[in-house]
């Protein structure tokens, strides 16, 4: 790998100190500095060597006139030769060039140029903006070519590190000299003459040149502004390789990682993906419906993101149906949604929150004890699928007992053309969902084909609620089966049975924070605290209320709504014209969810809800229902309200858990010393009394 650090063989008998010492950066000193270094004791020697390395990283010349120079930056010459420094060109917006032997120094402008030979990769952590200046590269399955727009890449510490790989591209009968001249002209706008000279010495045919830029977004700034969450994107890890490459990457906001920390897919995953891409691009008699299933933490979501990026290299859009309530991909948790994906997915879910085509707020991260409602919502959302592009269906990781029967019902309901089943030696056992197995098994709400006259899946009870095209309504609902595609996963997850729930809870909170980050002004404007934003005023008689996860007494309903995460929904019934409110619903409706918000306060005098939401006003006019579930506001939002004096709003150590619905736990959340209190500091708002 032409741009990677030198890796040494590790024998079982070598100590950590020997390996660390061998990986140190070598100094190139003249005779006098070497003598001085030899006379010092080991402590002073370490300090002296550290200063020399810092000077070397800065590009200071110590060979001539008592300065230090790196081996790549100093051209070999005789001792009697006079120094002949290359005159720099006009100081263009300078960047840093990353090479196996770093020849340049950081310009501090937050940009770096990376040269990747064909077949080589660059594994990193952090976030950056990637532009392909020359050649072609692939990130997470998505191909970025010369002349294409820059892409925002998020390689976070909560997921596998991403790798930028140089791939083969076609060259129209150009000689190496012509390619080198073209690359040199492209670099003239980014590197000065010395840096360009050092970079082009490592140029080879079919290599790729990238521009890495520092990425700043309001959503990322909002997430890292909360205590303890800055580690998600950047971590300060000690390293022995402190050189110009280290400083160049640090100015961009990334750091090089070992290749073993990067994403690794098995051969079976690649072969299945290649077949699915070929089918999606060549199928003429319909769009494939691809259902992905498997146990928890086995790599389903990673496979789906990679597959989406691979498909976007060939087709313009893909439909995505989210059926996993706990770990949603494009929306806050607790939703079942249908989206049309047109842009690559180059990061974890909390880095690409998007507006779905159709969404229903289920209100809980799991469908246990409410299977029928879960199936009905999927039927309602799936009815909006137009069959104009391939559909990818993500399912839950619950594949045991009732979860397996529920999955069989989903297969019969959605009628996929391909079922991708993940299996692992370390995961929970799951039988092969072959067409014959699904035919002969009863689901929770469907019967096997041996109990139905037709050989296909005749779902009379489901057919009534699905909407089909006119030509499809003439034919009976007859499903003829699917193709099972097995993937042997070697995905290694950092989750254990003990920390799985807490880890998933952190990911859900990051998704909520990412959604709330849409309230922030665009960069470079400073962040604004949530309590400093102006909320919308919603009259009591304009919206109906419903608590999804618990039965709450009408006298306590406002306690549950205040300072809660609410779904902004649209029901068919007209709630206007009722009494002054609040208007309560007896049952949870299946309705469209237009977005989410925070009930920041309740004004009992004026009978108003104060809602804080990023949903645009033209969409808010259609909202006439507020749904409250177990998805809560992250505690870091309530605890880190800056700029306030005295008692922090909504935080108390004296909370009455005897109220109906007050002791409802969210996942495995433990009782902490601080609890959310339904209290707002302004006198006009609704206050809690014990």
TrEMBL record:
Q: Which GO terms describe its molecular function?
A: ATP binding; ATP-dependent polynucleotide 5'-hydroxyl-kinase activity; RNA binding
**Which Pfam families did the record assign?**
CLP1_P, Cupin_NOL9, NOL9_C
Q: Which E.C. number(s) belong to this protein?
A: 2.7.1.78
Q: Where is the composition biased (Basic residues)?
A: 677-690
Main role? Polynucleotide kinase that can phosphorylate the 5'-hydroxyl groups of single-stranded and double-stranded RNA and DNA substrates. Involved in rRNA processing and its kinase activity is required for the processing of the 32S precursor into 5.8S and 28S rRNAs, more specifically for the generation of the major 5.8S(S) form. Required for the efficient pre-rRNA processing of internal transcribed spacer 2 (ITS2). Associates with LAS1L to form an ITS2 pre-rRNA endonuclease-kinase complex and is responsible for the transport of this complex into the nucleolus.
- Entry annotated with the keyword NAD: no
- Source organism: Tursiops truncatus
Reaction(s) catalysed (UniProt annotation): a 5'-end dephospho-ribonucleoside-RNA + ATP = a 5'-end 5'-phospho-ribonucleoside-RNA + ADP + H(+); a 5'-end dephospho-2'-deoxyribonucleoside-DNA + ATP = a 5'-end 5'-phospho-2'-deoxyribonucleoside-DNA + ADP + H(+)
* NOL9 C-terminal domain ranges (all copies): 533-634
Please state the gene responsible for encoding this protein: NOL9
PANTHER family given for it? CLEAVAGE/POLYADENYLATION FACTOR IA SUBUNIT CLP1P, POLYNUCLEOTIDE 5'-HYDROXYL-KINASE NOL9
Q: Which BP terms in the Gene Ontology apply to this protein?
A: cleavage in ITS2 between 5.8S rRNA and LSU-rRNA of tricistronic rRNA transcript (SSU-rRNA, 5.8S rRNA, LSU-rRNA)
Where in the numbering of this chain does the Clp1 P-loop domain appear? 294-426
Q: Which residues form the NOL9 N-terminal domain?
A: 109-234
- Please report which protein family the annotation says this sequence is part of: Belongs to the Clp1 family. NOL9/GRC3 subfamily.
Q: Report what the protein is called.
A: Polynucleotide 5'-hydroxyl-kinase NOL9
> Which keywords does this chain's UniProt record carry?
Acetylation, ATP-binding, Isopeptide bond, Kinase, Nucleotide-binding, Nucleus, RNA-binding, rRNA processing, Transferase, Ubl conjugation
Might you report a single GO cellular component term? Answer: nucleolus
Where it sits in the cell: the answer is: Nucleus, Nucleolus
Q: Where is this region: Disordered?
A: 73-94, 671-690
């Amino acid at each position: 790998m032409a741009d990677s650090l030198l890796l040494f063989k590790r024998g079982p008998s070598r100590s950590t100190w020997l390996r660390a010492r061998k990986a140190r950066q070598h100094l190139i000193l003249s005779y006098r500095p070497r003598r001085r270094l030899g006379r010092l004791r080991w402590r002073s020697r370490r300090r002296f060597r550290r200063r020399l390395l810092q000077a070397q990283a800065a590009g200071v010349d110590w060979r001539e006139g008592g300065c230090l120079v790196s081996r790549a930056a100093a051209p070999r010459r005789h001792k009697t030769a006079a120094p002949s420094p290359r005159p720099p060109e006009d100081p263009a917006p300078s960047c840093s060039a990353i090479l196996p032997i770093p020849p340049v120094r950081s310009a501090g402008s937050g940009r770096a140029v990376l040269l990747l030979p064909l077949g080589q990769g660059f594994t990193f952590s952090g976030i950056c903006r990637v532009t392909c200046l020359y050649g072609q590269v692939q990130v997470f399955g998505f191909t970025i070519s010369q002349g294409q727009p820059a892409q925002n890449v998020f390689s976070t510490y909560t997921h596998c590190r991403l790798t930028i790989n140089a791939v083969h591209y076609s060259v129209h009968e150009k000689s190496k000299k012509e390619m080198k001249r073209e690359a040199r002209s492209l670099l003239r706008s980014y590197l000065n003459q010395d840096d360009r000279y050092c970079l082009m010495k490592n140029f080879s045919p079919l290599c790729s040149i990238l521009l890495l830029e520092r990425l700043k977004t309001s959503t990322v700034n909002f997430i890292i502004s909360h205590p303890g969450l800055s580690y998600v994107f950047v971590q300060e890890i000690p390293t022995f390789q402190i050189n110009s490459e280290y400083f160049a990457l640090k100015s961009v906001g990334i750091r090089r990682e070992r290749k073993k920390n990067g994403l690794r897919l098995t051969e079976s995953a690649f072969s299945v993906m290649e077949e699915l891409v070929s089918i999606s691009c060549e199928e003429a008699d319909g769009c494939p419906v691809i259902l992905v299933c498997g146990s928890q933490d086995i790599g389903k979501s990673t496979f789906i993101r990679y597959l989406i990026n691979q498909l976007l290299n060939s087709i313009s859009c893909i439909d995505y149906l989210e059926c996993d309530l706990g770990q949603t991909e494009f929306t806050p948790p607790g939703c079942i949604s249908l989206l049309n994906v047109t842009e690559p997915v180059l990061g974890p879910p909390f880095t690409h929150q998007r507006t779905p085509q159709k969404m229903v707020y289920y209100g809980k991260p799991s469908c246990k004890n409410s299977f029928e409602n879960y199936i009905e919502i999927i039927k309602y959302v799936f009815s909006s699928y137009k069959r104009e592009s391939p559909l990818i269906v993500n399912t839950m990781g619950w594949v045991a007992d009732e979860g397996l029967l529920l999955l069989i019902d989903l297969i019969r309901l959605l009628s996929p053309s391909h079922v991708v089943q993940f299996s692992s030696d370390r995961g929970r056992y799951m039988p092969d969902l072959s067409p014959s197995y699904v035919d002969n098994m009863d689901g929770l709400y469907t019967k096997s084909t041996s109990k139905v006259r037709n050989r296909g899946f005749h779902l009379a009870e489901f057919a009534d609620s699905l909407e089909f095209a006119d030509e499809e309504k003439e034919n009976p609902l007859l499903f003829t089966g699917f193709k099972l595609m097995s993937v042997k996963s070697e995905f290694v997850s950092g989750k254990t049975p003990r920390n799985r729930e807490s880890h998933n809870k952190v990911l859900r909170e990051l998704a909520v924070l990412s959604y709330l980050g849409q309230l922030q002004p665009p960069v470079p404007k400073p962040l604004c605290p949530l309590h400093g934003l102006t909320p919308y005023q919603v009259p009591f008689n304009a919206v109906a209320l419903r608590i999804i996860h618990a039965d709450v007494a009408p006298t306590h309903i406002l306690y549950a709504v205040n300072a809660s995460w609410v779904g902004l929904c649209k029901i068919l019934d007209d709630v206007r014209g009722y009494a002054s409110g609040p208007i309560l619903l007896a049952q949870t409706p299946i309705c469209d969810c237009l977005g989410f918000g925070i009930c920041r306060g309740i004004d009992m005098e004026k009978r108003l809800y104060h809602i804080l939401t990023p949903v645009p006003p033209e969409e808010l006019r259609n909202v006439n229902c507020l749904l409250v579930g177990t998805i809560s506001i992250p505690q870091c939002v309530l605890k880190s309200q800056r700029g306030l004096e005295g008692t922090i709003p909504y935080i108390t150590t004296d909370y009455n858990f005897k109220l109906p619905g007050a002791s409802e736990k969210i996942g495995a959340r433990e009782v902490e010393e601080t609890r959310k209190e339904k209290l707002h500091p302004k006198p006009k708002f609704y206050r809690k009394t014990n």
